[in-house]
Specification:
The protein is α+β, with helices and mostly antiparallel strands and 295 residues long. It has three helices and nine strands; from the N terminus they run αββββαβββββα.
Length: 295
């Protein structure tokens, strides 16, 4: 028994190993157009499906199975092939990158071309349009710059040339400056101080920007060899199944009559049992009489 199960498993494994690769290798194709029309004097509904394949494609992946639609059964009637030179069109996106000295989007958009001509590696050509929503600006890097600040303040009517009377810092343009020098002047009664304040200011700025943008559209390649297959499906009407005839009802006893018969069954059983006992007793008596006569 174990040997038989092992043999069956081995055969199943071999079948899967040979079948699955073949199924995986079959490519499924989809029609580029589907046409529904009627044919002949009876106006038979038909469906025509057109597939376009490359010369290297395997046409066995074209669906040819029967199908049902609108109450009709469709079946493959014919398959035609036509070799031709066509145009292969496909969507394409080209991403461009450029440097910019400004991060202002309005200025960046002015510097980008509205469209561009492209030729792909496999020979497709076309005109692409700028996708404005795809434009992005990124900072390449930052640097810090420092500049010197200075300001003068005059303090008149001082009683003495004393530095303690002069503020050591001031605020200029939101920045703090420190006292650097004081010049004194005396009019004979009071002193006037002219103070110089200095400081520095640092600022961070971008060294440059990188702009990326997408151009989208379609590219085409002419003089490419393609094979056009047309699958024609005929149809027949699906018959409507009529419901089976219901059998005529059979007359039966009324519930009351049935109940009456049911009630008599126990009584009939008792009578039959008594009759059997009587017959058995009579048979026994007869046997006893026969024995006495013999003796």
């Amino acid at each position: 028994m174990k040997k038989r199960v092992a043999a069956l498993l081995c055969a199943l494994s071999t079948l899967l190993c040979t079948t699955l690769p073949a199924l995986a290798a079959t490519k499924q194709y989809y029609p580029i157009s589907v046409e529904e029309y009627t044919y002949g004097p009876l106006e038979e509904p038909r469906v025509s499906k057109v597939y376009q394949l490359a010369l290297s494609d395997d046409p066995s992946g074209i669906p040819t199975e029967d199908f049902e639609r609108d109450g009709r059964h469709f079946y493959l009637l014919d398959m035609t092939r036509k070799d031709e030179v066509g145009v292969d069109t496909q969507p394409y996106t080209e991403t461009v990158t450029m440097d910019s000295d400004t991060g202002d989007m309005a200025q960046v958009l002015k510097r980008l071309d509205g469209q561009m001509e492209v030729t792909t590696e496999d020979g497709h050509t076309g005109t692409l349009i700028l996708d404005h929503t795809s434009v992005k600006v990124a900072v390449k890097g930052y640097q810090t710059s420092t500049r010197n600040l200075s300001a003068n303040r005059t303090y008149p009517s001082l009683s003495d040339a004393d530095l303690d009377l002069i503020p050591k810092t001031i605020t200029e343009g939101g920045r703090t400056l420190t006292l650097a020098d004081v010049q004194w002047a005396n009019d004979g009664t009071f002193y006037t101080a002219t103070a110089s304040y200095t400081g520095t200011a640092s600022s961070r700025y971008a060294t440059g920007y990188t702009v990326t943008a997408n151009y989208t559209g379609e590219v085409a390649k002419t003089n490419c060899e393609v094979v056009t297959y047309t699958a024609v499906f005929g149809s027949t009407e699906i018959p409507i199944e009529e419901p089976a005839e219901q059998p005529e009802p059979v007359e039966t006893d009324t519930p009351a009559e049935a109940n009456g018969v049911t009630d008599l069954l126990p009584l009939l059983g008792c009578v039959g049992g008594v009759a059997a006992l009587v017959a058995a007793a009579c048979w026994g008596c007869q046997k006893i009489k026969e024995r006495k006569m013999r003796t």
